[in-house]
Amino acid sequence: MTNKFHPLKIILLPYLVVILMPQGIAWSQNSSSSENQTPLQPLLPTLQTDEPSNFPSVPRGYEPRPFEERNAQHLNDYRLDFGDSINVSVARFPEFNFSGTLDAQGNVVVPILGRISLRGLTTEEVENKISFELANRYLREPPQVLAVLAGQRPFNLTVIGEVTRPGYYTVSDGIPMSSLLTLAGGTTDKADIRSILIRRRLADETIVEEKLDLYRPLIEGTSEPRIRLQPGDTVIVSSLEVGQDQDYDRFFISRTNVPQPLIRVRVVAPTGAAGATLRNINIPNGSTFLDAVALLPEFIPLVTNNEVTLMRFDPELGEVVSQSINVRQTLQGGDMAQNVPLREDDVIVVSRTLLGRILGGIRVITQPIRDIFGFTNFIQDTIDGRLFDRRNNNFRF
């Protein structure tokens, strides 16, 4: 009985090979398609394994490549995810047309094909995938497919660095960088908008960064660079390094809609009996000394007082600098050289006596003033009497 079945096995073997070949070919096509798909490669050196949120500022000595719209396709491609809606049409086969929204798993229901995953794909990749699936299952050749993004999901990203309100923000697709900075309260006085970093984690877990320049378009009057922000992006506004502001017009930038809309200026004025008061006033960013004069309370005798000094901490010099201002001459004579543009945390001192007290304290304090925070704290402590003893006009050290 066994010998009778040997010829049958030999005869059936070629037919089994023929039957299995189409499945093997299909599997080979699917396998090669997935294997030949080149992963996204970073255009910049890959950072260490630290999460993006672990970088509070830009590492010194690291210079990402400048953003260029023509060469930044990896930053401008929009990738689908939960909540996105798409419209898909198939040429000559309207029965495959559909509209759908990606579910929490990134899937969408396609007529006849069923449920397929589109998470992480661009619209062009969606077209290729659906065309391949239709040709692989039902059609003789790949059809022409058109996919259009019909509805975009809001997404979360992080804004840190020199902005007034760093944190997490929920935004819509297509938001301009300038609008995002406004949403974060605007840039601070120490921001360098020539270097705004966009940090992104790609699908293959690599991290890329590019540098966006908003300063040059503002100076030259050209359009804002277009960059498509994505979920999980981290936007970092760099600090203006000491010695790097020679070609940086702070006053011009302060009058645009990019920085914070208001700045705080402090006014130190006498109150009688050797007393002093410290007032904080909020003025529009880009204001000058005369703009601040117009907003001062009436009880401060500034307009009729010629003994006025403007003080600020100069980070380049690493010390407090001052400038005397003749208010009457500035108002009546139109001396615009003394109408100084104001910055955040500038201090206006009314009275030479108060100025002498403050400058004397700066000379004798045991801990030097090294930054703007030390300067503002010193002014506050001096006026509050924590450093100055009004009974004997001496500093407490």
Automatic annotation (TrEMBL):
Biased composition (Low complexity): 37-49
Classification via Pfam families: Poly_export (PF02563), SLBB (PF10531)
Ranges where the Polysaccharide export protein N-terminal domain occurs: 76-145
Lineage: superkingdom: Bacteria
UniProt-listed InterPro entries: Poly_export (IPR049712), Poly_export_N (IPR003715), Soluble_ligand-bd (IPR019554)
Species classification: Bacteria, Bacillati, Cyanobacteriota, Cyanophyceae, Oscillatoriophycideae
Coiled coil (residue ranges): none
Protein name: Polysaccharide export protein
Signal peptide: none
Record flagged with keyword Signal: yes
Domain Soluble ligand binding: 158-206
Keywords: Signal
GO molecular function, one term: polysaccharide transmembrane transporter activity
UniProt key word Signal: yes
Region entry Disordered, spans: 30-65
Organism: Cyanobacterium stanieri (strain ATCC 29140 / PCC 7202)
